[in-house]
Amino acid sequence: MADSKAIAQAIRDGRTSLGIEFGSTRIKAVLIDDERNTITTGDYGWQSHLVDGLWSYDVDKIWRGLQSVYADVADRVEADYGLKLTRIGQIGFSAMMHGYLAFDADGELLVPFRTWQNTNTSEAHEKLSELFQYNIPERWSIAHLYQAVLDNEPHIGSVRYFTTLSGYVHWKLTGRKVLGIGDASGMFPIDPNTKTYEQGFIEQFDALPEVAAQPWKLNDLLPEPLVAGTPAGELTPEGAALLDPSGVLQPGTMLAPPEGDAGTGMVATNSVRRRTGNVSAGTSIFATVVLEHKLSKLRPEVDLVTTPAGDLAGMSHANNFTADLNGWVDLFRQFSQLNGRNVDDGTLYGELFRAAIGEDADPDAGGLLAYPFRTGEFLAGLAEGRPLFVRGPEARFSLANFMRAQLFGAFSPVTIGMNVMTEDEGVEIDSLVGHGGIFATPVVAQRILAAAFNTPIRVMTTASEGGAWGMAVLADYLRHADLTLADYLDDVVFAGAESVTEAPRPDDVDGFQRFFARFVKALPVERSAVEHVEIGG
């Protein structure tokens, strides 16, 4: 770690990179120096909400959150180093992938932002997947656009541009309608050879009668995909004022291509080479493996996206992961407070998580079942979700088994797609890296995930840094684009990185497999809950 004088000089010289990522529950900023050391961070919490039955975020909170995390960074730089943050070397924005932000010819938003959480696009998913013989998940941007066409939504004829959240923020700060190729691959399929959209698929899409009747062609609506290391525009005076209303930050900073959270997860875990992979775990969870070749056929359980360098990767994506788990932990927090004990997050999560691998925990969670479905889940065939905890009358109900069931249940949906890749497609994996806040508690989540995937799981010292740090690294890569992204990560960023590996334990693997079999068998219980339990209770 650099000393404070060296960091202060890097700030003065503009030898810094800023990454800002819009996650599902928080917006985070990370400022790093030219040695990739974290200088300071900023944080802003937000939540999606239903608008006319669709999950959305308020647009004003996009900008309020952006300005808040930037102000956090600038204020901490001034407090810690006595410096005004007048310039930054490079900036990059990333965000949760997919979704739908559609604009008219005047740049006005036509409908509220539709997030990746929405599953109202099943008809579009099915028709496009069949047309292309390529999986087009429900949350992809093209599925949202096509569903609006199929539903004859009033706004559809006025669309002149659509993009993702990261692309929207980047556009407003630079004037450039571009997107990092990894994020673009979650809008529409990418050809890994040409590093652009699959033109044959675009022609098929435009030829659909209901699309041909529209006053636009798809190519004219999509942002331009850019590979990592490509300059993606400069911070305009208007963009600088939008990011920093105080007027201290000067325009002219070079921006990296805006990326999705899958790409920043790959970077933060050094998983961009073929046969490497990562598991990015947060509100949602996805396991991504960089492929050596295309899949043999259409596999609905596997998304095909790309690395920020444009190489094809297979992803098993589950919409649901920690939301229900966090709710249970908060319940235990409330109980602790009733007894006069105020427990910090690290201690509370640590105590509960460690119970899941303690001596009192049965390998299969004692017959308990936990379904983490707050929203719909394609992998489980659910249009909607209802968080559910189920036990048989003879199940062994203990705190240890309860927490083990919660963790097993959280990792079960993503296991469905991962099994398709490794068992049905024979995908080879040299290394798999865990990434996200759940891995901050040592050993526990690693050990549970190793059992679920039956493969060693490595956690690096940067695991808790998250996607914002990964985006800052991608911004820094603009200065190193003479190297391939894989070589830059291996030889520059992670050359001395430390990591801890948990190998799968036979008892854990056997226990998870028994739990998973019960989980799949009892899915009709979850479907019944969706049918009979209202969202509000």
Please tell me about this protein's structure.
The protein is α/β, with parallel strands linked by helices. Among the domains are: 98-163 and 188-221, ATPase, nucleotide binding domain (Nucleotidyltransferase, domain 5); 262-320 and 417-502, 2-Layer Sandwich (Nucleotidyltransferase, domain 5), CATH 3.30.420; 322-410 and 506-532, no CATH class. It is 39% helix and 18% strand. The protein is built from 19 helices and 23 strands. The chain has a seven-stranded mixed beta sheet with strand order 17-18-16-15-21-22-23, with helices on both faces. A hairpin with a 4-residue loop joins β2 and β3 (38-45). α3 (122-132) crosses α4, α13 (345-355) crosses α14 and α14 crosses α18 (506-521). The termini are far apart. Residues 18-240 form the Carbohydrate kinase FGGY N-terminal domain. This is Probable sugar kinase.
